[in-house]
Amino acid sequence: MALRRALVARVRTPRMRTAWAVLAAVLALALVGAAAGPRWNPEPLSASVSPASSSVAVLGSTGSSEIGRYETTSRLVQLELVAPDADGEGGVSTEVLIVEPIGLEEPAPAVVFLHGAGTGLAEAFSEHAQALASAGIVAVSPSKRLDTYSTFQRDYVAMADDYAVTLDLARSLPGVDPARVGLYAESEGAWVAPVLAADNPDVAFLALVSAPVVTPRQQGAFAVDAYLRAVGVPQTFLRAIPRATGAHWPADFLNYADFDVRPYLAETDVPIFMAYGTDDLSMPTVQGPQIVLGSIPGGQEQLMLRYYEGANHGIRIGSATDPVLPGFLDGLASWVLDPLAAEIEGPAVAGATPQQVHLASAVPPPRWYADGEMMLRVPLISLAVLVVGYLALAGGIAALALARRRERSAVVVGLGESATSDDPASLVAIDGDDVPGPRPHLVRGLLAFTAATAAVVLVLAAYIVAVAVLALNYSTNGIVVWGGWVLLQGLAVLAAWLGVRAVRRLVGVRPGRDVAGIVRLAGGWLVVAGLLGLLTTSAYWGAFSPVS
């Protein structure tokens, strides 16, 4: 019985030590992930909007539907934005869709369309253009200039200058009243339109549809937060929002993230029409109009606001390919035909009651070690250390194998017939356990640790992509959201366990006096260091977090 207890104790003690070490590693990585900051606690929105009427109708000057009164004609033209140099190079042109009503007896108002981030071709607004033209309005839709526009770099002031060329084209069209030419700006375009209006006082009106109003950084964080909450991700995963959207990069990278449109709104004194869909999670549907109202010089007398029940970001019911709400296009047409009469008739705010839970506010920046370029440097350096470690480990093992072969050959030659390779006793000193350097089980342990860490990184990346797809499609999937989260945490614990085992084996290795042994051991520790860097990065983005 005493012998049995002793054997059990011998087994339990190493296992308990390993278990405690794994627990300590998991808690340490979890603490690093949580404390690395910043935290995410968006402030609840206390303000609300009370529409004066549930009807979204805009009476305008006639009080009746305008769409369909005229036949229309369409054409595409090329418009030069930048003239070529003396050698005929460097010129930039864009395609413009012009849709005009047929049979007008008087000069008509015109609308120039400004794209959001998701559209770029002139035909993107063809549905809107056809509807407005059939109401007696000339619609001018240019393609977005893309040679100076990318995910990482864009300049809203420069974009306004490009759209100004289309604005001049619209004013010069036969049958257009140049004093009644205004702008229709959707989503991101609503940052550009006030700039264009401030620089061009002759702009007659602004239609800001699904307008963010707050800075791009604030809107991005707000949208991601709303989407992730709608998908139902674990609360701890939300801390990734400021870590991703709050990062500050060199001046030429994401240089538009903190663009503030309010100074341009303050210089805009023309009638403004704003529209939102109540199912648009990406926009601050309550806060945005309040900011506009507090910025424009004319206050409420300058602004008309409509909320469309169940409509999405594009003022459509359903997907981006479904038709635009007819009531929206009809109201827009009535307003464009006579904005001042529409304001007089009112009401200023009408439609469904919007719901905005949190403020779109300033995003706390990450700390220096995870901000901007450091966000990329840490994992890249970790990968580099990992590769160098494996190269050193492989080089050391190869050197050891070569040395063993040479020693074996020397023994065989020196002993002659009295000792050959067939005599096992003569080779004990060569092949025995006292040869310093990593054993095969250590290499296997490092490979297992590497595989588990790679699985954590890949599953984390796949989880982020899967959640993003669900969010963008306004979908939920408990198996993906929670099953993927539990899988990620399980793999993280497995990686920690394999890491503890690898470290314990490394600690027990004697490097020996030869250079190869030292290189081998250093390679093993570099592998561990690189993998620890990758696990720390994964912890920063959500691994090693509580499941709920």
UniProtKB/TrEMBL annotation:
Record keyword Transcription regulation present: no
UniProt entry tagged with the keyword rRNA processing: no
SUPFAM superfamilies the UniProt entry points to: alpha/beta-Hydrolases
Gene3D superfamilies: alpha/beta hydrolase (3.40.50.1820)
Source taxon at top rank: Bacteria
Entry keywords, A to Z: Hydrolase, Membrane, Transmembrane, Transmembrane helix
InterPro entries referenced in this protein's UniProt entry, alphabetically: AB_hydrolase_Est10, AB_hydrolase_fold
A Gene Ontology molecular function term of the record: carboxylic ester hydrolase activity
Protein name: Alpha/beta hydrolase
